[in-house]
Specification:
The complex is a heterodimer. Chain A is α/β, with parallel strands linked by helices. Helix content of chain A is 46%, strand content 20%. Chain A is elongated, with a radius of gyration of 23 Å. By secondary structure, chain B is mainly alpha-helical. The chains are: A alpha/beta, B mainly alpha.
Chain lengths: 376, 291
C-alpha cells in the first residue's frame, strides 16, 4: 500500500514537471567571490533578472529557463574546475566567466564539449584563437579601437596623434589596432610611446608628447597610470584633447586625477548611463530588484541570456549543437527582441558589433556626449 | 630644444626630492652606520599618515603638521629606539637586513590598513604655469624645487653654522673624542634620525601628489635615493644633493632619449661606472666622515 502511494506521488510529480515542458538548463560560472566579486555578482544578477523576466512571459519556445551558478573565486584554476563540472551536467549554453584570464583557460573545455560559451572577457586574443564556440557580450579591442580611431579622425579632426600605451598584452593589443586604423584613416601617429605598468613618473613621456605637438592624444593605460599621466599632462600644460577607453574615464581615475580628468574623453561599450530607453528601463528594473545601480557587467549578464533566447527562437528548436553556428553572423534587433537592448551583430569569430558611447568627464562626472553607431 | 628644457626642469624637480631622501640616507650612515633600506617606505608612509589625519576630519595644513610630527615620532624616535639601537651592536649587515624587513612590514601594514589601490593626495602647490626664459614651467615643479632647496639650505646652515651642527659633525667624525670633549653623542645621533624623518616626510608631501599615495610607491624612491647617495658620495651631504639632482635629470633624459623600458637601467649603469672609477662618489672623499 505504502509503495503504491510513493509510486503515485512520483507519477504526479513527473506529470506536473511534464506540463511545463522540460526546462532549458544553463550553467553560469562567474567571479562570485575574490577580487572579481563585483564583476561576477553583477553578471549573475543580470542573468537572474533576465531569466525571471523570460520565464514570467512563458519561457523560450514554451520551455522555462533554469540556471545553475558556480563560483570561480576569481581564480582561473578554480574556474576551470567549475566549468568542467558544469559541462559534465551537459548544459544548453555555458555563461561566463567574466575575467579574460579565466575565459582563456576554460574556453578550450567548452569548445571540446561542443557547447557555446557566452562570456564577459574583453581581451583581444580570446576570439582570435579560432574557437568556434566562444561569444562576447561586450567589445573586444578589435571592435572598439576602430571606433576610437574613427572618432579621433572624423570628430576630433586630428591629423596628428600621440599614442601612449602600457607595455603589456592589454596595452600592446590596443596599440596595434589603433595605430593601424589611424594610419588607414590618414591620421599620422607622431609619437608612439610605450610606458611601463606601475610607472610613477610620466614627466618624460609627457615631455615627448609636448614636443610632438599632436592634435590629439590617445591614452591607453591602466587606471592608476591613467590618473598619473592626466595629472602630468595638466602639470606640463598639454592642451591637446585626450581620448581613451573606459580605463581613461572610469570613476576610479576621476577620483585619483581630480580636476586633471576634466575634458578627457573615452569610448565606452556598455554603460547603464546610456541614453537608450531600453537600457534606462533595464537599469530601473535592476535597481528595483537588487537595490543598487548595476555596472556594465550587470548589462552583460542580462544580454547573455537574451542572446540565448533570440538564437534559440531563430533556430525554432533547442539544439545545443547548432547554437554556435546560428549565433555566428546573426543580427538581433532590439525592435524584435527588446531584451537585447540595442541592435547587435555577431561576427564569425564571436565578436560583436553594436552602437557604443562617447563619454566625456565634465566637472568630475561622466557624461555621455555622443552615440557612436555600429561599424557595419 | 624646448623639450630638453622641460625635461631638465622636470628632472631637477624629481631630483630635488631624491636629494632630500638621499641626504637623510647619508645622515643616518654618517652618525650611526645605519644603511636604511626602508628609506623609500619612509617616504611612502607620511603621506598615508596625513591622509589618515584628513580622514578623521583634520584640514590639510593640520594634517601636514600632524603627519610630520607622527613621522618624526615613528620613523625617527621609534625607529632608532626599537630597531637601530638593539640591532646596532650586531654590526652593519644585520641592521641593514633588519631595515629590509621593516620595509616589507611597513608596505604590508599600509596595504592592510588602507588598501592596495592608489589614493589621490592634494598638492601644496597650485597647478598652473609661469614663463621662464620663454618656456612655460609648471608651478608645481618650481614649488617642489623651492621647498627642497630651502630644506637643504636650512640643513647645511644648521650643520655648518651652528654649535649644534658642529657637535653633530664631531659626533659623526669621531664619537670617542666627541664624547671626551663633552658632546652628547647619543643625543646628536637621535637628532639626525629626527632630521631624516622630517626630510622624508617633506619628500612625501612633495612627491605624493604626483606619484599618488600607494603602498608600493616607496620602492622606486628608495632605490633612486640609494643610487643618488652612492653616486654623489655616501659620506657627504652635498654629494647626496648633487647625486639626487643628477639621478633625477638622468632618469628623465634616459626615459626621453633612450627608452622607457631602460630608464631604470641607465642610473644603474651610471652607478656601476661610478663604483668602478670613483668609488668614493663624485663629491665624496675617501676614508673620511663628515655630515
Amino acid at each position: 500500500m505504502k509503495s503504491t502511494l510513493v509510486v503515485g506521488a512520483l507519477l504526479t510529480v513527473m506529470t506536473a514537471t511534464g506540463a511545463f515542458g522540460q526546462a532549458i538548463k544553463l550553467a553560469n560560472v562567474a567571479e562570485l567571490s575574490g577580487g572579481g566579486a563585483t564583476v561576477g555578482t553583477n553578471w549573475k544578477n543580470g542573468i537572474d533578472l533576465a531569466i525571471e523576466e523570460i520565464n514570467a512571459k512563458g519561457g523560450v519556445l514554451g520551455r522555462k529557463l533554469e540556471v545553475s551558478h558556480a563560483d570561480s573565486q576569481s581564480n582561473p584554476g578554480v574556474a576551470r574546475a567549475q566549468v568542467q563540472k558544469a559541462l559534465d551536467a551537459e548544459p544548453y549554453v555555458l555563461l561566463g566567466p567574466g575575467y579574460s584570464g579565466s575565459v582563456k583557460v576554460t574556453a578550450p573545455l567548452a569548445a571540446e564539449a561542443g557547447i557555446a560559451q557566452i562570456m564577459g572577457g574583453e581581451a583581444a586574443e580570446l576570439t582570435q584563437a579560432g574557437n568556434k564556440f566562444l561569444f562576447r557580450t561586450s567589445f573586444g579591442q578589435q571592435s572598439s579601437m576602430p571606433k576610437v580611431a574613427k572618432y579621433i579622425h572624423d570628430e576630433m579632426k586630428a591629423k596628428t596623434v600621440a599614442v601612449v600605451w602600457v607595455n603589456n598584452d592589454f596595452g600592446r593589443g590596443g596599440r596595434d589596432v589603433i595605430v593601424k586604423e589611424l594610419d588607414r584613416l590618414g591620421s599620422k601617429v607622431v609619437a608612439d610611446l610605450s610606458t611601463e605598468a606601475g610607472q610613477a613618473d610620466f614627466a618624460a613621456d609627457v615631455g615627448k608628447i609636448k614636443a610632438a605637438n599632436p592634435d590629439a592624444v590617445f591614452v591607453y593605460l591602466n587606471e592608476e597610470e591613467s590618473a598619473r599621466i592626466l595629472k602630468e599632462l595638466k602639470r606640463q600644460g598639454v592642451t591637446a584633447p585626450l581620448m581613451g577607453e573606459t580605463t581613461l574615464i572610469g570613476q576610479k581615475v576621476i577620483e585619483l586625477a581630480g580636476d586633471a580628468a576634466n575634458g578627457a574623453r573615452g569610448h565606452v561599450g556598455l554603460t547603464t548611463d546610456a541614453p537608450v530607453d531600453l537600457v534606462k528601463a533595464f537599469r530601473e528594473k535592476f535597481s528595483k530588484k537588487y537595490n543598487y545601480v548595476p555596472d556594465h557587467n550587470g548589462l552583460k549578464g542580462y544580454l547573455a541570456v537574451y542572446m540565448v533566447k533570440a538564437t534559440t527562437e531563430k533556430m525554432g528548436k533547442v539544439d545545443p549543437k547548432k547554437f554556435a553556428d546560428t549565433l555566428h553572423g546573426l543580427t538581433i534587433k532590439a525592435a524584435d527582441e527588446p531584451g537585447i537592448l540595442m541592435d547587435v551583430t555577431f561576427s564569425d569569430t564571436g565578436d560583436i558589433d553594436r552602437q557604443s558611447f562617447l563619454v566625456e568627464v565634465v566637472e568630475g562626472k561622466q557624461v555621455v556626449k555622443q552615440v557612436l553607431p555600429k561599424v557595419k | 630644444m624646448s623639450n630638453l628644457f622641460d625635461l631638465l626642469v622636470a628632472g631637477l624637480a624629481t631630483g630635488a626630492i631624491y636629494a632630500l631622501v638621499a641626504v637623510g640616507f647619508t645622515l643616518l650612515w654618517q652618525t650611526s652606520q645605519t644603511i636604511n633600506f626602508a628609506q623609500g617606505e619612509f617616504v611612502m608612509l607620511p603621506a598615508f599618515l596625513m591622509l589618515a589625519a584628513m580622514q578623521v576630519g583634520a584640514p590639510f595644513w593640520l594634517a601636514i603638521i600632524l603627519g610630520i610630527l607622527l613621522s618624526m615620532i615613528l620613523l625617527g624616535l621609534a625607529f632608532k629606539l626599537l630597531l637601530v639601537d638593539p640591532m646596532m651592536r650586531h654590526g652593519v649587515l644585520p641592521l641593514a637586513i633588519a631595515t629590509m624587513a621593516l620595509a616589507i612590514g611597513i608596505k604590508e601594514a599600509v596595504k592592510q590598513f588602507f588598501s592596495a589601490e592608489a589614493s589621490p593626495f592634494p598638492s601644496i602647490v597650485p597647478t598652473g604655469e609661469v614663463a621662464i626664459l620663454g618656456h612655460a614651467v609648471s608651478l608645481q615643479s618650481i614649488g617642489v624645487l623651492v621647498v627642497a632647496i630651502l630644506a637643504v639650505l636650512g640643513l647645511t646652515t644648521l650643520l655648518n653654522r651652528t654649535s649644534l651642527g658642529h657637535q653633530m659633525q664631531a659626533a659623526a667624525q669621531n664619537p670617542t673624542v666627541a664624547r671626551i670633549i663633552g658632546v652628547p653623542v647619543e643625543r646628536m645621533i637621535l637628532l639626525t634620525f629626527l632630521i631624516n624623518a622630517f626630510l622624508v616626510a617633506l619628500a612625501s608631501l612633495l612627491i605624493t601628489p604626483i606619484y599618488l599615495a600607494k603602498f608600493s610607491s616607496g620602492e622606486v624612491l628608495g632605490q633612486a635615493a640609494f643610487i643618488a647617495a652612492i653616486v654623489g658620495g655616501f659620506n657627504q651631504v652635498r654629494g647626496a644633493i648633487a647625486g639626487g639632482l643628477l639621478i633625477g635629470v638622468l632618469d628623465n633624459l634616459a626615459a626621453a632619449y633612450v627608452s622607457t623600458q631602460y630608464r631604470a637601467a641607465v642610473p644603474m649603469m651610471f652607478l656601476i661606472a661610478v663604483i668602478l672609477f670613483r668609488p668614493q662618489g663624485l663629491l665624496g672623499r675617501a676614508e673620511e666622515r663628515t655630515v
